[in-house]
Specification:
The complex is a heterodimer of chains A (99) and B (183). With 99 residues, chain A is α+β, with helices and mostly antiparallel strands. Chain A has helices spanning 37-45, 92-98, and strands spanning 3-6, 11-14, 19-23, 53-59, 67-73, 79-84. Chain A has one domain (3-98): 2-Layer Sandwich (Folate-binding fold). Chain B folds into two domains: 11-23 and 105-180, Gyrase A, domain 2 (2-Layer Sandwich); 27-101, 2-Layer Sandwich (Alpha-Beta Plaits). The chains are: A alpha+beta (99), B alpha+beta (183).
Chain lengths: 99, 183
């Protein structure tokens, strides 16, 4: 079982308390009606599908119920970092250097 | 052919290592308030609302448990229900909040005895050694969302949503029988 660090509870807890919630830092367009069909499709469906470190959202649904962001390696399943929602996207190079 | 063996335990045998008791109803409220206004509202309710998740504050028989950054569970004797609602209503201007009564939503079980922690491990994924006495957390118990209170080293309390309670109770009793049988 994965152990995930919740940045709000500040505890490392079993995966069963959490729910995956898709890719992080996908910014909702301010004026969807001004977008072309292709741009709207890309916003809705096109994701990076990264092999390696992936920025993603998780929700501590059976705990504090908060959404937060995580950087997880999709190959090894290792969590490099979790951080609160709304915080800036961390720099990947410095993260990997810190590992 | 399937064979079934049933054990006919006496109550004393089953409860020697762990007891499961259903507790009397209490008043419960779900409180949501911005952290900046939490202290003001806490004063109105006579509680110093804890600001760390999992911490408990108690005063005059009332208990506040911090469940999330802006969420608290308030428990109190049933007689205090109207006083809490009135106090929160009076403080609404100064501290806008949402206070929802959830008294009937949950049933509480007390699980106590030398094997209480072992019994909970059958369905609780948390490392219970890290849950100190006097703390409580929201977690899962065999996919059911529960609030797990640790009242003492060998004493726990489970708040279970009413409709899931028969399932949780049945699971606990299976575990209790297995512990009594030395499995």
């Amino acid at each position: 079982m994965l152990l995930i660090h919740c940045p709000y509870c500040d505890e490392t807890l079993p995966e069963l308390e959490f729910a995956y919630a898709g890719e992080a830092h996908v910014i909702r367009p301010e004026d969807p009606s001004a977008m072309s069909d292709e741009e709207w499709r890309d916003f809705l469906f096109i994701r990076t599908n990264a092999r390696g470190p992936h920025f993603e959202r998780w929700r501590h649904v059976h705990g504090c119920a908060r959404f937060f962001n995580a950087v997880r390696d999709t190959v090894s399943d290792r969590f490099l970092l979790t951080y609160k929602a709304g915080e800036p996207r961390p720099d990947l190079a410095s993260l990997e250097a810190a590992q | 052919m399937m064979t079934n063996q049933t054990h006919d335990f006496t109550l004393a045998e089953a409860t020697a290592r762990v007891r499961i008791d259903e507790l009397a109803p209490v008043s419960r409220f779900s409180l949501r308030v911005r952290p900046a206004q939490a202290a003001t509202l806490g004063r109105a309710l006579g509680l110093d609302l804890p600001d760390r998740i999992g911490r408990i504050a108690e005063a005059q028989g009332r208990t506040a448990l911090c469940l999330g950054p802006d969420e608290w569970l308030i428990c109190a004797p049933e007689a205090a229900r109207d006083a809490i609602l009135a106090a929160a209503r009076d403080a609404y201007e100064a501290a806008p909040h949402s206070l929802t009564e959830i008294s009937d939503r949950e049933i509480s079980y007390r699980i106590s005895g030398p094997a209480a922690q072992e019994l909970l491990t059958i369905a609780c994924p948390r490392d219970l050694d890290l849950l100190e006495p006097g703390r409580a957390v929201r977690t899962v118990f065999d996919t059911v969302q529960v609030v797990l209170w640790r009242d003492g080293p060998q004493e726990f309390r489970l708040d279970v949503w009413r409709s899931f309670a028969p399932h949780v109770r049945a699971l606990l009793e299976i575990g209790q029988a297995e512990l009594a049988a030395g499995l």
